[in-house]
Amino acid sequence: MCGIVGYVGPRNAVPLLLEGMQRLEYRGYDSAGVAVRQADGRLAVRKRVGRLANLEEALETEPLAGQLGIGHTRWATHGEPSEVNSHPHVDCAGNIAAVHNGIIENYLALRSDLEAKGHVFRSQTDTEVIPHLIEELLKDGAVSRSAAIRQALRQAQGAYALGIVFRDEPAVLYAARCGSPLIVGVGEGEQFIASDVPAILNRVKQVIYLNDGEVAELRPAGVAMAKLDGTPVQPEIKTVTLRAEAAERAGFETFMLKEIHEQPRVLRTMLETHVGKDGAVNLGEVSDLLAAEAAGLQRIVILACGTAYYAGMYGRLLLEAWAGIPCETDLGSEFRYRHPRLPERTLVVAVSQSGETADTLASVRLARRMECKVVGICNVAGSTLLRESDGGLLTQAGPEIGVASTKAFSAQLLAFALLAIRLARLRGAMDAARERELTAALARIPDGIHRVLERQDDVRRISQKYYECYNALYLGRRFNYPIALEGALKNKEISYQHAEGYAAGEMKHGPIALINEFLPVVCLCTPTADEVRDKMVSNLKEVEARKGRIIAVAAEGDATLQGLAQDVIPVPETIEEFSPLINVVALQLFAYYNAKLRGADIDKPRNLAKSVTVE
Ligand code: F6R
After folding, report:
1. N or C: which end of the chain has fewer CB within 10 A?
2. Do 172 and 196 belong to one domain?
3. Which residues are the active-site residues?
4. Which pTM was predicted?
5. Can you give the pLDDT at residue 78?
6. CATH number of the domain within which 398 lies
7. pLDDT score for 382
8. Whether residue 591 has its Cβ less than 6 Å from ligand 1
9. Domain assignment of residue 434, yes or no
10. Taking the mean position of all CA atoms in its chain, how far away is CA 6?
11. DSSP per-residue codes, 197-240
């Protein structure tokens, strides 16, 4: 999704904007631009379609300099990716420039009203109404610039994060937020704005998370804030604990590979935080919320999108099995429109890496209107989801820059395991001995993942045989069914190889028609002893009988699978419930090498955005 950076201070804004925009590239974009208030009094704008390098080249050929500026990476929604549709957008006179993330839903009405008043629009974007509207409101000179911004935003419906600068106000940067994330970075004698913390992590250590309906006025010496009605707001400054290196590649060829390798550490950190020496799970404020809710709980609804939804499917199985509560999982984009009927005392668990996904947030708001308590599982401190939840569980994965989620997904799986154990204990459905047994098994998972990572070259060699195939089928059962879906999603999003995830038992009901000697069928076959193991082996036999090419993720030394599959990715065994935490790593590596061999841009897959802040 679009990324915003802004700067006001004593230094030249241009390199700072470009640096921040580079750090936002991971969000996904198709064009980029900057507006800089130059010393000669002009408000200069440069934009280019495509990679940021194109804009950097343009700025080398025709340099800009100034101490106030805004920059933007655009992910097209209204209007094709083109120079004219790229941000910043300006008013008729070129005195006001704005960058925007979100969608102004009533832009057509605003635009025709402004056109009737003589404003000339250049782009097809919704964003362009903002500078024109402010220009219109400032026309008779009766209001201040900040009042005009607030008035304009009272008229705008939809979602926005905005950065706005004025040609004749060289030391003020305005920022506003409603529904799309925006932070202010507080420096010494200089201020920044950005869509997220990693963009300015190496520049500031203190940030202000803007709330919906707040407008900030940044001057080099400080920040003033007000609500849309003009009521002043006291800025709440928070210190960022993330280290700048957390958002760097650290010698890995891609962020995704680095993040795959970070998984043992991420899980260890979460276990250290949430499991005591006695083996008991403690989830801080979520434990308190669960303690108050546990006894009377009627139902749990898990809400999420994409990869996080698959983590939710896994969570559902654990919550039902251990805590004994009816549980359902729904997509944010479906729940919000399905007119849900929820029994009293329904607990909602919303899962989101970014905490800014529009559909997930809309569903959470709907659930809150229905008086549900909400637990947010999220990877970004200060995110909207965590702020709007009754209890937040931070998955301590650190910044995830690769667009395809890996370490944040594993952290979500672990968060659900911990949540289910805690809830089961609170409801008396699990005793302390079983809890200790489970947390001891969890403590061994990071080493298990290490063992899979050590085999990455073997996985690469397997990918070499399959990366040219057009399609792939992924099969799993019970706890590994969501992992089959996740493995297929990972593969298609980064390698563009079409992949379908299926519950293995469903194969006979349709996809079996696809199986022939050209179709790779990736099968999740651990552990060796559980209720569904024999069924899984039968499904593999069905694939074998039709000459499908079986790639099995199987327990080390599993002789049955060695005999059945063309290729085996051996993984260490754990209990069935936790096998997804290990198996998913094998599938991440398989997708990774497929993508690499196909020459794809792994960290920035085409058309995808890291944080989907529009519907
Ligand atoms: C896929 C992926 C997406 C996200 C989805 C929700 O690898 O990352 O499917 O899971 O867009 O995003 P969050 O988790 O930020 O709500």
Report:
1. C
2. yes
3. 2, 610
4. 0.88
5. 83
6. 3.40.50.10490
7. 84
8. no
9. yes
10. 22
11. GGGGTTT-SEEEEPPTTEEEEEETTEEEEEETTS-EE----EE-
